[in-house]
Amino acid sequence: MPEARTSSQRLDPVTPHAMLTAPHYLATQAGIALLRRGGTAIDAAIGAAAVLSVVYPHMCSIGGDNFWLIYGARAGGELKGLNACGRAGSRADRDFYASAGMPAVPARGYGAAVTVPGAVSGWDAAFRYSRERLRSPLAWAELFEDAIDYAEHGFPVSANLEACLTAALDATDAEYQNLQRFSGFREVFAADGAPRRAGTLLRQPDLAATLRAIAAHGAEAFYTGAIGAAMAEELAANGSPLTREDLLRHRPVWVEPLTTRYRDCTACNLPPNTQGLTSLQILNILDRFDPGSIEEGSADYYHLLLEAAKRAIRDRDRHITDPDFVPVPVERLLSAAYADAMRADIRMDAAAPPPDGRSHGGDTVWLGVVDRHGNAVSLIQSIYHPFGSGIIPRGTGVILQNRGCAFSLDPGHVNRLEPGKRTFHTLNPAMLLKGGRPFLVYGTMGGEGQPQTQSALVTRIVDYGMPPQDAVAAPRWLFGRTWGSVSGKVRLEDRIPAAVIADLRARGHDIEVVGPWSETMGHAGAILVDAENGTLRGAADPRGDGLAAGY
To answer: Is the pTM of this model over 0.90?
Structure first.
């Protein structure tokens, strides 16, 4: 028997009809079941995302946000973006926190949940598009059957979830963890004060009831019905700046995706308030280097991608915010002339200093789908830090996100807090088109690391011909990402050769070596569309609990 080709020892699935990859195997199975019933890529993505909201509560929730990149093969080959993130509460301003003596928006608790949860509205808008433009034969309620089942009857806790719960209940870390101080969180996730253990069944009956109401009555049940009323009542009783009216006013927004050239492909991502611009800027810089002159996995390879990321991140921290409040110079930052200037600024023998500014972490899920009609979805959903704000309004089972703590209380900051504003968002789903059709559907969780990991996947697959699974499993790096603090370190997995690490240190990089399959690097995934052979090739990250599968 031949040796496994991928270091992750995972399957390297190749299928003729449809493919889905998600960071938890139960979500993948739920999505594949919907595809087999004739559902579209959007239908499968919603079904998988709903399951992830149940079985991966440390990474996402229906109390978070999501962003979509959709290719509608049955809608004339159109590419659409959907921004389903919530705005700051109407009472959330800098004075609100200053009067409470807070120098920053708190990471946990009722004060952190200052943004409306947008995920359910994103599911709703995407499904309407699926029915109207992609001719989905499925009913809305069908998409939630597996999620409701796992919430009501239970699912086995993964080792990943147990580890995050153990950290979340750490009473010595009062700012980011210690979530046992919130009664709603304790009741769901801490049996007798201890975290739920791997392999045991976790039931969430309140979440099952909420999902059942959404399945029966649509997104309105979440925003305008009893669920929204219960969330708003508990938030108001605990001094939150988010109001019932904020929930009622919320709407997702269809947006025009940003694009740039990369080799013979068109790289696509979402516009601000996301860091999709950052991901495309990195590719814009890399497109100006000859991959034939740089060996993948060499010190030159890691150095170049790190230096490109630093320059794009510097621009991100200067410019990206809600364009409804502050104009973002997207055209200039994506121009060929600007990319040429950034490329010329990179020295291959020396590392540039790290950008100033706060790094952005985040626990998130990314999933990708391509259906038998050629429709494709790149979807990312998050609650920001593990378990978001830690707040679960009584009777709802909904973990509310803490995305609002990404705002700055500095009045001169581009991402300063203002009522009704959408904060800078790390989430950015990605896709490469070739000949106007999907070639690579890809993405990752990981906050600061998302643009960096996206560049790793693109270069390894497009420039070096690596199969998607090998590209996802290969050693990775991460510049930045320390919650709430500045970090100029470069984290490298210890599978990178010692000589390469020493070379990077000699060039001036501040290196920290981490474990061989570190979750710090995020959970990535990809689907390669091989038009020549008529096949789909999927990949799931060995750092998570994911699965790529199809039929």
So the answer is: yes
